[in-house]
Amino acid sequence: MNDAIVIIPTYNEIENIEAIIKAVFSQSKEFHILVVDDNSPDLTAKKVTELQQEFQKNLFLLNRKEKTGLGTAYIAGFKWCLSKGYKYIFEMDADFSHDPNDLIKLYNACHVDGADVAIGSRYIKGVNVVNWPMSRILLSYFASKYVRFITRMKIEDTTAGFVCYKRAVLEAINLDKIEFVGYAFQIEMKFKAYLKKFQIVEVPVIFTDRKRGKSKMSGGIISEAIFGVIKMKLKSIFNSK
Asked: One MF term from GO for this chain (predicted)?
């Protein structure tokens, strides 16, 4: 059995899904893919079903009835992948902001170098972001600095969504207790791994803004990250006493 699977959560990604799937499957290392689709009105799931005829053994689809947040999509994906026995479980966006060619770097950081969590980091070597407006670069950069300050994690890109987890990490985290549903989910997962003393490394990558489709970023997602991080940190202090 193949040991690595890439979870790609989707909502209205019909413009990107076929290309991203084929790009992942073109890598020198074999990766399986699990698409977790939130009942996309643009029929993203239908396109994945069509592609399964071509990739019968390594492309899987998890259909959800409604859009309930990035975090819940990943939690559903994690549970599915754990039940199937995969050793290395990846998070990756559908829109090519994460380069499929970097998957092998994250895999090697865990499989060869022994890390428990490998983060595709935009900020470990300067600011490696392409096609973002300066306002969004500053928001993302200082959000990561803010999270680092509050949580004390030694991670430069705390909000990164391009990650490889060893299955032992996901098994150790109580996935049913993950609270954040938006992009702050990424922070919470890293924080839970950090609290459990797993080895977390950052691998430098270049992040490129999407060329097709629409961003899912919203004000509610940002406020969840800002205020939720303080609550998360305080809860960890009191729970440890």
From this structure: dolichyl-phosphate beta-D-mannosyltransferase activity
pLDDT (tens digit per residue) in 72-119: 999 999 999 999 999 999 999 999 999 999 999 999 999 999 999 999
Q: What is the CATH number of the domain that holds 168?
A: 3.90.550.10
For residue 199, give the nearest of 138, 109, 74 by alpha carbon: 109
CA angle 209, 189, 37 (to 5 degrees): 55
**Residue 50, SS3?**
helix
User: Mind giving me the DSSP string for 101-154?
Assistant: GGHHHHHHHHHTT--SEEEEESSTTS--EES--HHHHHHHHHHHHHHHHHH---
Instruction: Write out residues in the chain with pLDDT < 50, as ranges.
Output: 218-219, 241
Say how many domains are in the chain: 1
Question: Model's pTM, two decimal places?
Answer: 0.91
Domain of 187, in residue numbers = 4-239
Pick from 206, 15, 223, 203: nearest CA to 110: 203
Cα–Cα dist 202/163, whole Å: 9
- Is residue 221 within 8 A of residue 182, CB to CB? The reply is yes
In DSSP notation, 149-208 reads: HHH----S-TT---EEEEHHHHHHS-GGG----STHHHHHHHHHHHHTT--EEEEE--EE
φ/ψ of 23, rounded to 5, equals -70, -40
For the chain, how many residues are written?
241
